[in-house]
Structure formats: C-alpha cells, structure tokens
C-alpha cells in the first residue's frame, strides 16, 4: 500500500466540501430535520461568549442602579403620583426582576447551564413576563396620554383605583402568556455537544411545529396588538399637540415617545428575527445550513439588544425628563446630601414649572 504524502493530504482536504459531509454521514441536505442537526455543529467562539457575558453583567449593574432610582423617586413622592407614574413604577419593577436574572444568563452564555431545571424555567418565565408587561404597560401609558390630552379627561385619568386593577391585570396576563415557557423549557445535553443547555424541549417529530405555535402568542398578543394601540394613540395625540401651545405637555410627550422608540429599537429586531425563524421552520423560505446559522446568530445578537432594554428607561429619564431630575434632587436635599441652593439653581436653569396639568412627576 502506497503511503500518502503531505501534498496528497492537502489535495484531499482541498476538495472536501459540505456535499461530501452530507453523503458520508448519511445526512440528507434536503431534509430539514437532518439539516438542523448538521447546522447545530457550529458554536460561538470562547471570546464571543465572554464578551456576551460581560455585556449581560454590565446591563445588570446599570439596570439595578437606574431602576432602583426610578422606584425611589416615584415612591418618595406618593402624594403627587400620577397614573403614568404608576405604570412607570411597574415598568421599573419588571426591569429589576429581569436584571436579577442577567448574571445567570451571563454564566450560561460563557459556559453552560449549571443551575438546574427549576431555575431554567423561572428565569425563562421572568424574561418572557418582562417583555409582555413592558409593552403592555407602554400601551396603557399611550391610552392614558390619549385620554388626558385628546379628550382632556384629567379627572378620569387621575383616578388610581382602576389603575391598580389595570396593573394587576397586566401582570396576570403577562405570566399567563409565559406559561408555555414553563411547559416547554427544559435542561438537556445539546446535540453533538457535551454542554447542558436551557432551551425548548417539546419532544417528538413535531418540535418545530409546536415551537411555531408557541411563538404565535407573543408575536400577536404580546407585540403586534399593543404596538398598533400605541401607534394609534400616539399618532392622534401628537397631531393634537401640534395644534396646541402647551409646552409642558409636549415635554412629557417627548420623554414618553423616547421610551417607546427605545423599546421598539431594542425589541423589534428580536421579533423580526423570530418571525424569520418561524418562516424558516414552516418552510415558507428555503431552509439551508448557512441561512439557519445566520438566523441563529441573529436571534442571539438581537436577544442581547432586547435584554439591554432593562437599563435604558432610567437613562432616558435622567437625560430628557426634567421632572425626574428635579424630584431626585429634592430627595438628595431632604437627606442633606446636596444643598438647597443646587436645587434652586437647577430649577432656574431649566425653567422648571411645578404646576403641570396631566403630566407625570417622573417625566
């Protein structure tokens, strides 16, 4: 038997392609299930995994600090709290709950899942509930602003008893919509790998079909419907504001619109990636290995962007919301951390007016 030289080996591997891989391994490249198995063999590099973990930890720190300040400001001025403040308080609480899970997701992204089945289900539910409650709270804020500005129903929008029921309903609906995650999420060893993962594990040959069904719920009731409500309410509200000269209301709307736009910037790419993945799994678009890997990478990247939203709102309040800064400075003055002269100088410089109709003390 002739021995192979180094040049012969290079020639063999130079002509080695993916078709040879499918033929030699028994994988049918036209079979979506077999193709999925082949595509799962690619994994992120160690450097990428640690970068993602660092981003999660940074977002966690910023979210804990920022949203804690929001909760402090809203709770401290309980007597002057508006309907919008109640919604923003619940939004901050939702972001705080999500932030507490980010170190766990960071370790998972850098290594593997080591926290057991119960923690897998709990953290997954909190992530889903955060998204649902976030967009639903923003939708209710848009309705509140619509009623307060378009119909000038200040008395109706300032009643808090129905706001408490609305917030409880939002939380209940969010957790109900997250229940499929409890049923489908599992800890198991990834195919063609020794690592444990926390992922959907529906089982059987209908996994992709059920995954698509479970995605219809968040994409329809948890994203599209609230988005349409916000677009309608803010569209009519902005049109009415352009016809008035109420500067205070325009300032409040500027902050709220910034909150909505940032939410869409963070979460819309993720849901577009989910939609593309859904179309891929239902074979509306052709399923190829390269396309599947691209979509999987997009899902991971856009999920990072979506989770980073938990620290964005406090930054918006701090840089745009004059009332948030004013109330925060008032707390510092009350506890003797800064002098009262600093607060007076800030109010003069920002031309702050404490008498505002139908606006939030946070905004």
From TrEMBL:
GO terms for cellular component: external side of plasma membrane. The keyword Hydrolase does not apply. Keywords: Cell membrane, Chemotaxis, Disulfide bond, G-protein coupled receptor, Glycoprotein, Membrane, Phosphoprotein, Receptor, Transducer, Transmembrane, Transmembrane helix. The chain crosses the membrane at residues 50-75, 87-108, 131-153, 165-183, 221-242, 254-272. It is a multi-pass membrane protein. Interacts with IL8. Interacts with GNAI2. InterPro entries: CCR1-9-like, Chemokine_CXCR_1/2, GPCR_Rhodpsn, GPCR_Rhodpsn_7TM. Receptor for interleukin-8 which is a powerful neutrophil chemotactic factor. Binding of IL-8 to the receptor causes activation of neutrophils. This response is mediated via a G-protein that activates a phosphatidylinositol-calcium second messenger system. Binds to IL-8 with high affinity. Also binds with high affinity to CXCL3, GRO/MGSA and NAP-2. GO terms for molecular function: C-C chemokine binding; C-C chemokine receptor activity; C-X-C chemokine receptor activity. Residues 66-317 form the G-protein coupled receptors family 1 profile domain. GO terms for biological process: calcium-mediated signaling; immune response; neutrophil chemotaxis; positive regulation of cytosolic calcium ion concentration. Belongs to the G-protein coupled receptor 1 family. It is found in: Cell membrane. This is C-X-C chemokine receptor type 2. The lineage of its organism: Eukaryota, Metazoa, Chordata, Craniata, Vertebrata.
């Amino acid at each position: 038997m002739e021995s192979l030289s180094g040049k012969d080996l290079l020639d063999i591997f130079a002509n080695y392609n993916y078709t040879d891989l499918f033929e030699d391994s028994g994988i049918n490249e036209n079979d979506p299930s077999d193709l999925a198995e082949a595509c799962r063999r690619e994994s992120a590099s160690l450097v990428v995994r640690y970068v993602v973990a660092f981003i999660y930890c940074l977002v966690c720190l910023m979210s804990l600090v920022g949203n804690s300040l929001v909760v402090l400001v809203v709770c401290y001025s309980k007597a002057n709290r508006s309907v919008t403040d109640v919604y923003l308080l619940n939004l901050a609480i939702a972001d705080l709950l999500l932030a507490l899970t980010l170190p766990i997701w960071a370790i998972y992204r850098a290594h593997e899942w080591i926290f057991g089945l119960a923690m897998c289900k709990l953290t997954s539910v909190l992530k889903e509930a955060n998204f649902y409650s976030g967009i639903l709270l923003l939708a209710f804020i848009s309705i509140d602003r619509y009623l307060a500005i378009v119909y000038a129903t200040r008395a109706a929008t300032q009643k808090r008893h129905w706001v408490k029921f609305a917030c409880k309903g939002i939380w209940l609906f969010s957790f109900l919509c997250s229940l499929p995650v409890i049923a489908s999420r599992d800890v198991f060893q990834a195919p063609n790998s020794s690592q444990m993962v926390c992922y959907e594990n529906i089982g059987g040959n209908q996994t992709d079909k059920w995954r698509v069904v479970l995605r219809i719920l968040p994409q329809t009731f948890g994203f599209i419907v609230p988005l349409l409500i916000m677009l309608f309410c803010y569209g009519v509200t902005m049109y009415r504001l352009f016809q008035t000269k109420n500067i205070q209301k325009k300032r409040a709307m500027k902050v709220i619109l910034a909150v909505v736009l940032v939410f869409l910037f963070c979460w819309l790419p993720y849901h577009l990636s989910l939609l593309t993945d859904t179309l891929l799994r239902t074979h509306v678009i052709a399923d190829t290995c390269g396309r599947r890997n691209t979509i999987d990478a997009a899902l991971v990247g856009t999920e990072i962007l979506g989770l980073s939203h938990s620290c964005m709102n406090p930054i918006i309040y701090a840089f745009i919301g004059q009332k948030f800064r004013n109330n925060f400075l008032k707390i510092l003055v009350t506890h003797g951390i800064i002098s009262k002269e600093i607060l007076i100088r800030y109010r003069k410089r920002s031309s702050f007016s404490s008498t505002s109709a139908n606006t939030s003390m946070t905004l």
